[in-house]
Amino acid sequence: MATPTYPSRRFFACGVTQGAAWGTALPVGALDELVVTSDGNPALKQNYSSSDAINRVMPIDGDLGAFEAIDFSPEFAGKIGLQYEMGAMGGPIAALFGTAPAPADLTGAYKHTWQWADEVTDFFTFVTERPNDIWEIPSCVPMKLSLKVGDGKLQGSITLRGNMLTNASVVNTATEVDAMTAADDANFVKFQHGACRMNAQGGAGLGAGDNLIISDLQLDFERLMDAQISMGATYLSQPKEQSWKITVKIKLPYVTAANTYHDIFTTMAAQKMSLVFTGGIIGATAIPYEVAFYFPRLKLTSPPDIKLEDIITGGLEFVAEEAITSLPTGMLYYRPYMTVTNLLNAQYVT
Description:
Layout: E1 14-18, E2 48-50, E3 62-64, E4 70-72, E5 75-76, H1 90-97, E6 98-99, E7 104-105, E8 110-116, E9 124-130, E10 133-150, E11 153-162, H2 174-178, E12 194-200, E13 216-225, E14 241-252, H3 261-266, E15 271-281, E16 288-300, E17 305-306, E18 314-320, E19 337-342
Antiparallel strand pairs: 1-9, 2-3, 4-11, 5-11, 6-8, 7-8, 8-19, 9-10, 10-11, 10-13, 12-15, 13-14, 14-18, 15-16, 16-18, 16-19, 17-18
């Protein structure tokens, strides 16, 4: 098939494949297509500067500057949400967490565990289409995963920082783009599939007695990175990290006499939390699809937002930390981590 020319996004595709050498593109193919509502609108960032020499009433020439970092955020929003099978989106998410080994074999299903590492080491080639044109970002690194509730699903975006953008690639042409396929289109992680549990960091393992009823949710996993171009290079160097920040925002539909959130804030009492989404049964197994987030240590960053209204609701904002002194009961790791149980028997990043 030729690259589409009709001016509607319905006809256009985008995808990612894991890279091997920074700045060198690799071809996309089967299972590399992203199931998204927006490709994040990446755009070439290379400024034109006109001459401003003296004795020039009006500039008579100019030049293009160096490539700047290309930041863009493909979205799974609208009627689309995060999927249990993850597909190509699983690669950048796993890479953002950083430690993503081979999955555990549950006999017919596979459990992937992604731990928050010191830094991101994996990167990707990103390809997207425009009318009669194919755009390629040879290398991009994930910087941020944002998740929220929308249309009853867990929706969000993955932010990537790319080194450059070209529409003259010989690696990714119409042949490679046409070969892209997606893992799944409709196995969504729904808000009603979820369960939130929270108790003190030093308390017992999270159980049914720790259920927290919430009506809204926002998760942000972010690595703050630089953007440098070295002498002799024409595009962005592989970014290095300055720091990271993970935040959890939840809304309580009702605040009752049992709430102790003000005391939790004023005493800076660390909490632990799990957010587990459970889908349908996987194939012929008795094992359900699952996407889960675990936070061994959380701190409230502001007093609880509890206003006097007809129905009194509450808002809580946490920042994730490392439980460095001791492993909280029921947690597998000291830092935040994510698990995904589905049919993929291979690593999302290698």
